[in-house]
Amino acid sequence: MCGITERVEQMERTDTETPSRTTSYRTMTAFTPADEERRRGVRRMKLTATGLLLFVAVVYVLATWASHQGAGPWAGYVAAAAEAGMVGALADWFAVTALFRHPLGLPIPHTAIIPTKKDQLGVSLGEFVGENFLSEDVVRQRLRAVGIGSRLGAWLAEPDHADRVTAELATALRGALTVLRDSDVQAVVGEAITRRADAQEIAPGIGKMLEKIVADGGHKRVVDLVVTRAHDWLVLHRDDVMVAVEGGAPGWTPRFVDRKVGERVYKELLRFATEMRDMPSHPARGALDRFLTDFASDLQSDTDTRARVERLKGEVLGRGEVQDLIASAWTAVRSMIVAAAEDERSELRLRVRAALLSLGSRMAAEPKVQEKVDSWVEGVAVHIVTTYRKEITSLITDTVAGWDADHTTRKIEAHIGRDLQFIRINGTVVGSLAGLLIYVISRGVGA
């Protein structure tokens, strides 16, 4: 009976490995052509086992008759062996039948075990799996024995495999970007940028950056560009400057005086721009450096300056043009990413492929990297197992509970019934041998 129970538990465990309760019910109740063939095999083995029982019964009858007719001592030995064989066959027939139904239809206690104890078997199976397969130690030992880090590294180190992973990642990325609605993402991006900007004061950061730029002399190139462009503009627009100066003169001054003043102002402006352009040590440049240094300090420490910058930031972010620019940034980024993902020779895919090859080589060759990957995988697996152990075991329990008892019984019997009929045959043979041995011993003791 121990072998029978183990075989039943094995079949229960095999059949519960299904994705959902609905699928499990369908799998257990639908008889496939293979199941029908198994059932025919079970019926053939039942006929064989029953035929052997009838055979030993006939042998017992004939041997008993022969013994009464004075056929000799051998008849007693044959009758004893046949009698024990019948007892063994009947006992194993009762045991096998009791697994699936009530023997002879009689409601004998502790029979029809599978249909009546199906739900309890599901609970026991779930607990067994949870305790022996979903424990932290078992998961860690099994994953450590597999060596995922080294195997995955060796696999990724192959260029063909890296190309395959890169292509799959590109496909997944394109699919994800296609599914996302631009309006939703734009709203999220705009809201996130605005919220982040509102929550963080920008003046101190700008001040530190400006202070660093001035200290390193990075602003000097900008000054050079500005004064050069100003000089060139003055050279090209002499008449415009003259007209502007003359137009601002009082009406009572003579025209030739206005022109002289305009020429003088223009020459001074041109001289100032030329000196600013050609003299790195010009006093105006030093004054500009001091102004920028003081402004950088005020941005970091002056309360009024920081408050004005925050008000300006709020006004800029509140403008519709800025919000439209933030929202449209997602469209540009998405188009760029999709184009890069579709192009096999794009810099994005080439860098991803190179990174995968490098990672695979390191994982395959460096034990520390392998240990890190294995530790990460073990940690994830243990977290999943320990967190969702009840859900996993309840899946088994609920699945078994959802099976129809009659259909489940027939399904299990079709799978293991043929092996169980060998128990009846073995019981007949072993019973006969045991009966013969007992008869021989009893005859020897009696003699």
TrEMBL record:
<feature type="transmembrane region" description="Helical">
    <location>
        <begin position="422"/>
        <end position="441"/>
    </location>
</feature>
<dbReference type="InterPro" id="IPR007383">
    <property type="entry name" value="DUF445"/>
</dbReference>
<dbReference type="GO" id="GO:0005886">
    <property type="term" value="C:plasma membrane"/>
</dbReference>
<dbReference type="Pfam" id="PF04286">
    <property type="entry name" value="DUF445"/>
</dbReference>
<keyword id="KW-1133">Transmembrane helix</keyword>
<keyword id="KW-0812">Transmembrane</keyword>
<feature type="compositionally biased region" description="Basic and acidic residues">
    <location>
        <begin position="1"/>
        <end position="18"/>
    </location>
</feature>
<protein>
    <recommendedName>
        <fullName>DUF445 domain-containing protein</fullName>
    </recommendedName>
</protein>
<feature type="transmembrane region" description="Helical">
    <location>
        <begin position="74"/>
        <end position="100"/>
    </location>
</feature>
<feature type="transmembrane region" description="Helical">
    <location>
        <begin position="47"/>
        <end position="68"/>
    </location>
</feature>
<keyword id="KW-0472">Membrane</keyword>
<feature type="region of interest" description="Disordered">
    <location>
        <begin position="1"/>
        <end position="20"/>
    </location>
</feature>
